[in-house]
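Section 3.1: Structural characterization of target chains.
Under the original work plan, the team committed to producing a structural model for every single-chain target entering the pipeline before any wet-lab resources were allocated. The record below documents one such target. The sequence was received from the expression subgroup and is listed exactly as submitted; it comprises 52 residues.
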Amino acid sequence: MGVCCYKNCEQEATTKGFVLARNPNGGQDIPTDVEACDKHKKVRGFFESEEK
C-alpha cells in the first residue's frame, strides 16, 4: 500500500476503503477509492472496503 490519501498526511496507508465525493454534475455522491492510515481510517465519512 502507499501513502495515506488524506490531505497533508504523509503516513503509510494501512487500510483500503472509500469516501463519498460530491458529484460535479449534481445528483448522488460518487464513491471514491482511497487508502488511509490508522488515524484517518477512523474519520467519519471513511468506509472500509469489505474485500480482504
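The chain is about 0% helix and 30% strand.
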